[in-house]
Amino acid sequence: MSPVNVARVGPAMSPGEKLRTTSLTGRNGILCRYFYFAMSLLLAAIVVVGFKRTVDENLFHPAVPRPFILWIHASAFTGWAIFFICQSALVRIRKVSWHRSIGWFGAGLAPVMVPLGVLPPSSWPALTRFNSIRAARMLF
Q: Which domain holds residue 120?
């Protein structure tokens, strides 16, 4: 290497030294390589913890049957979380062609997610009213 290149690039480093200095945050560091996959798993864990009590008590074993739109809502959003984990895993294992071809499923799922995110909360007042009427009938 010429002295001009050494001045511009810097002194050469051994591969072991380079790995040691950039192993955590560098371009090919652990944080860079696993960030999206780890975040997808963290997102799924937060969703499971957040909905753990309500899904079991109010959806799988409810006192009053839940509307069908709530089942569709839960299925679509669960599918989206699984899809997100799969997509980040495919990129992580360098199966980008699979990631791109399966990505069309995500493009079709996205427009469905918007109304499914809005419809179930809009049906909650009617559902609450139904529950209170049924509860009142059960008391008398």
A: 33-139
